[in-house]
Amino acid sequence: MNRTVLVINSGSSSMKFSLVQPDSGVEIADGLVERIGERESIAKVQFGDRTVDRECAVADHDAALRLTFELFDEAGGNLETVGLVAVGHRLVHGGRDLYRPTVIDDAVVAKARELAPLAPLHNPPAVIGVEVARRMLPDLPHIAVFDTAFFHDLPAAAATYAMDRELAEQWRIRRYGFHGTSHQYVSEQAAEFLDRPLDQLNQIVLHLGNGASASAIAGGRPVDTSMGLTPMEGLVMGTRSGDVDPGIVFYLARTAKMAVEDIEAMLNRRSGVFGLGGDNDFRELHRLIEGGSEPEAGHARLAYDVYIHRLRKYIGAYLAVLGDTHVITFTAGVGENDAKVRRDALTGLAPLGVEIDEHLNESPSRGARVISADNSPTTVLVIPTDEELAIARACVAVLG
Ligand code: ADP
Hints:
Layout: E1 4-10, E2 15-21, E3 26-34, E4 41-47, E5 50-56, H1 61-74, E6 84-91, E7 102-103, H2 106-114, H3 123-136, E8 142-146, H4 156-159, H5 165-170, H6 180-194, E9 202-208, E10 212-218, E11 221-225, H7 247-254, H8 260-269, H9 272-277, H10 282-291, H11 296-322, E12 327-331, H12 332-337, H13 339-346, H14 358-362, E13 369-370, E14 379-382, H15 387-399
Parallel strand pairs: 1-6, 6-8, 9-12, 12-14
Antiparallel strand pairs: 1-2, 2-3, 3-4, 4-5, 7-8, 9-10, 10-11, 13-14
The structure holds adenosine-5'-diphosphate.
Keywords: ATP-binding, Cytoplasm, Kinase, Magnesium, Metal-binding, Nucleotide-binding, Transferase
GO molecular function, one term: magnesium ion binding
Organism: Mycolicibacterium chitae (Mycobacterium chitae)
């Protein structure tokens, strides 16, 4: 029988799940419960060609996972017979000590809970997801796969903040990097797609989803990435600011008398393209720019321009970090779907060896594809990310 891994990704008000067969790469079912804890939650499960959904109150993550299993049953699935061998959990922050995919026991749960201050939006709900799933499926191994893992061995020059060394050591302050599962998966897929050895490729991966990060990868090993101690640093994101002058935090605390928690919430949830342009969905942002009335259209335009400007700065930086860049790959929701973002990110870079083909870039194709011009020294790709499959593969690798 095919081995199947249940992959769980818990957010504060959402829970995503996916049943993946790592050997074939097939995802046999996926589901999502959103707005957990609100009056009207939305749950949806897809299995084969059947989709079942429900709108009802889902009080907590416990109820969400239970409901997901119910809907999977309703869609004709049977958890007992799919060949479940493990449950894989996406954990965002592993801190200094947790980075390899790790079989979860009480000590790992306690450690992940301790790391909450480093990823306050991500780690606590993920830990809740782990606890709920361990209670519900006690006989299966549960395995944590960390977003920080791929970047664990970043060169010291890229991982270190230029600040008081002893203080940084005491509080484990370094650049950890995130979306590592995606950066690793996509860079490996790029090598496979181009039929070239991974260890001979210098790559830039642009993971542009709601969260967004860039990485520079030399011969399969990351040499820089845009996210840091937390997933707030770097590119402009859906609702996160990315790079800001740290002086802004002190200024708001001192002068606007804002509490640290309020500043953090503002930079995490009310910044980025949403904070500037009123929406974090790029489809809506384009609609506003093209057809909105003023001042909304202008706000959306500025948000877009700031987003593109930052993205181009990181691409330029990583071209310099790598020296000779063979591949640039776009991935995740925006990177895979938004041809305009891809074009605006790379326009005018021919003198740096990067030239996209307008026609290929506009192609509605969904799979892995080349979008650079034939004569472009750097190949530009679009590759769909699949963090669930990567997590499932990491799980079976741990099991041996
Ligand atoms: P995450 O996993 O970080 O939640 P995704 O990688 O799923 O995010 O990306 C979600 C984002 O992708 C949306 O907020 C939206 O901005 C963008 N997106 C999705 N589909 C499209 C599309 N067809 N065109 C442009 N942007 C899109």
